[in-house]
Structures
1.
Amino acid sequence: MVVLLEVEEINTVPNAPLSHQVGLESRSDDRASVRFRAEYATLPAEPTMRKLTVYRHDRNAVGATYVYPVVSRRANGVSIGVNLNPNNACNWRCIYCQVPGLTRGKAPPIDLTVLQAELSTMLRTVVEGSFLASNVAPELRRLNDVALSGNGEPTTSRDLPAVLVCIEDQLAQFGLLGRIKVVLITNGSMTHEPWVQESLRHMARINGEVWFKLDRATGEGLTRVNSVKMSPADHLDRLRGTARIASTFVQTCLFALDGEPPAAAELDAYLAMLASLVEDRVPLRGVLLYGIARQSHQPEAPRLTPLPAPWLEEFAVRIRAVGLPATVSP
């Protein structure tokens, strides 16, 4: 069976073998098994699961510790997630978070051997196998990225620099380095730390992209939505610094709380913050505006409801008027 896999910035060849379509050499089983290090593999050769949709982001979808596939609304395709927080620990507690049993804390030490084997297995089954055809709707069968995300804040992991080396190596093995993105999805709270700065510089060299969380622009709003007490000005400084090192998007989640959208004063403060970044020529790529598509597992869940798509689109128009591109994922 020939499986069509579209990879960003790669021209596919109709009816050609999949390895040719994604620009990979054909490999013998012996070479693949050596590269794959099958003796360490923890995934089946061809993981099977329920169909992937934007409404189901199961971190245990293929029975791995760190690696999981999802269909991403914002990426409009398949993202291979790398979960550096299998302990469900995060230094924030966003009230819309879908992680069950979320606790305050940081990432545990990462077993890099296991991570390498899982990522190699997942890439192999996507690139050389039938995973996409078996598990993804036809219109979404494109591999967009490897994303550092998961069940907590990935930048709390001191192993982040070593994890990026592993990701770079595996992408190179499959001929995908520079052809798909490496995405860091972060709340931005740790981007001033030395190991994160090192990682941002590394990402800039390997087609990396940062999605930096900015849900609210006032201290009260940050406390209400993200359960943190911090200075909005300090958070803005971290965003400035991040965008000047690596390609960066602002990611913002908007929803109704107790049936009401964010207050006008909160939205105005948010737009003023973006305007200050534009005025200072901070090289942001744009804003990823999204709603809640999956059930929160936080105590506030019954109070949260999605905002209508037209509401989000109207706010995106206001963002664009400030001078930044904005995309909407209701």
2.
Amino acid sequence: MSEEVLSENEVDALMESSGDDEVFFADDSAREYRRFDITAREQGTVNRMGALAAILERQDELIHHGLVKQLSTDMAVKCQAPRVFSVSEAIAALPEGLVLVTLNLKPVAGDAFLVISLNTLSYLVHRYFGGGKTKPPSVTGRADATSSEMRVASKLTELYLQSVTNAFKEKVAFETEVIDTQNNLDALEERVATEKYLALVTDVSTPDFEDVLRLFVPFESFESLEDKLAGPKKESGVSLEGEWQIRIAEQMQDVAVEVSGVLASIELPLREVLGLKVGDVVDLAQLGSVSLEVQNQSVGFGQFGVFDDKKSVKYGMTGLLDLGAGVTLSSAVDQALNEETGNE
């Protein structure tokens, strides 16, 4: 008898998951045995495929539409979160009576499997051929599908594969092919028990019925699609600090500020200011440059002149008050002034 040896990836996953966990001892009844999840690494890869959720939602819609149009059955359809299972785990969860469809899903290498229970097939046959007015017959204890159920299985497989092709087409161009259809698990049981499969389990239900469709895809090959199925990546060209500066600068464009032109100013002792009365003359120095102030802070100076036969002041900005992101308060004011024909 040959010993089963863990692969390098499985050993890595085991080491990553073990961490500082306490060790279980068989004779320590106070502690509970925790089964190691050998698919932990693989599940992490699936979780990083951020585009899968939206794709599977789209597939749900397509399957629902196909069931209504092709099999005259209005079912609620909802795919569960994708999971990774070993072959042995997958087989253990399958119903007794089923149809196993072996598929080729290029570019994924290796056989994929669609599992449809006899329970679902019996219900669909009853709705499609019998109108669904009576309760479908029980499939308990039955292992083989009837000819009608096999025809419905073929239709259901066709619409399911069409949903895969259309739902994934923006990310992955799948080429689908049916290789074989069986009433048993032989094709799946021939796989190595520890081989990993991505399981897409889809709930289908009506008010009086519920079941699931199962698609098993070879994980080792599907894993190569991680980059194509990754979610949208955040643009890294602009730093967070830069983004905030741009946003603040954009908002500053709409902030109302007081802009004034100061023709001249002098300094007087407080005694003289308090002594001023109506009719007094304040002798100002000869007018020179005109100071442009925004919120009482000088941002430039101007010169007297004439514009369109009107006395005007032409201002020049000094580039003060840097707001970041290439925007200065002076440039903002200069832009506002340029929208006017002149300042008297």
